[in-house]
Prior knowledge:
The chain is α+β, with helices and mostly antiparallel strands. It is 31% helix and 24% strand. It has 8 helices and 17 strands. It has helices at 6-15, 23-44, 66-78, 144-147, 216-226, 244-254, 273-286, 317-333, and strands at residues 53-57, 63-65, 85-90, 97-98, 107-115, 126-134, 156-162, 166-171, 176-182, 187-192, 203-205, 237-238, 257-260, 271-272, 290-292, 309-310, 312-315. The strands form 4 sheets. It has an 8-stranded mixed beta sheet with strand order 4-3-5-6-7-8-9-10, sandwiched between helices. The chain has a 5-stranded mixed beta sheet with strand order 12-11-13-17-15, sandwiched between helices. Helix 1 (6-15) runs antiparallel to helix 2 (23-44) and helix 2 (23-44) packs antiparallel against helix 3 (66-78). The model has no long low-confidence stretch (mean pLDDT 94).
Amino acid sequence: MQGVTLTQHIRQSQLTHPEARGELSSLLTQIGVAGKVISSKVNMAGLVKMLGSTGRVNVQGEVVQKLDEYAEETIQNIVGGSGQVCALLSEELKHVIEIPEDRAGGYIVAYDPLDGSSNIDANVSIGTIFSIFPKKSSGVEVTRRDTMRPGREQIAAGYILYGSSTVFVYTVGDGVHGFTLDPSVGEYVLSHEDIRLPSKCKTLSINQGNAPYWPRWVHDFVERMLARNDEDKRRVSGRHIGSLVADFHRNLLYGGIFLYPADQRAPRGKLRLLYEASPLAFIIENAGGAASDGHQRILDMEPTELHHRTGLLIGNEAEVQLAEQCVRDAEAAA
Ligand code: P6P
């Protein structure tokens, strides 16, 4: 097998942080292991009766798919059992999971175990999103000072995309790197080194079905983006998968902006700050892009609760700034 593996790459990036003691490397590696386990089940879902729902509804009020439950259990067992974590914050769970002191480590992991799971039965790409914070409070107790953290305090973030191949993308704050799982050997191999967001915003990604609920500024922004297309050239194309991690990954590689703004149906936004917006914002900023809720930088937002929701505009910085200008213009005209 040719190429740098995820484990080798993580170790190499650790070398640039002499203070690192290998614990973060070990944690990232274990998240990769959890991804392999989930990937194997996702890729066989139709054959091992893992499609469809459990019939239960989670804390978000969303139907829990069988693979949601499997992914949640896998992360709890592998990441929770890594010895590097003192708390797990999951999209699927009502409360923070505190790891018993004798098995706890120095990191907090916030995660969406299987984002986009409503698309599973249609074989659409889905993914695991994760965010890692170092414990902040002294002592063994996990407090809100440890869990309710602005994204700028993240030490690492990433996602595992279960698509035509399984791709592990992560950042520790010095660049964004992607690895493709080689199922024949069970290793992630470096396939996208130092990902930089292309300078041209080629894609506009938003759920048009929500247009009746959008605030004025969203209509203005969409109109301004589409006005770039003329009879000579289509500069902006619409793409919306409905799986955040898949929409994000496409835009990261091709250039684009994804928007899920707060609207009349979701006045605080639909997407969750701690384990969706914040990790993706850490990634996009490390790839040269930007992420905002229309008013402020996602990474500066202070969560007030585990499932804190927010509007999200994420992708090319110029287009995020244009959207923010549309917000200001609409507020000034109101
Ligand atoms: P809507 C999936 O449930 C998810 O959290 C994201 O992956 C996706 O972008 C969004 O919801 C889709 O929501 O309201 O457009 O169906």
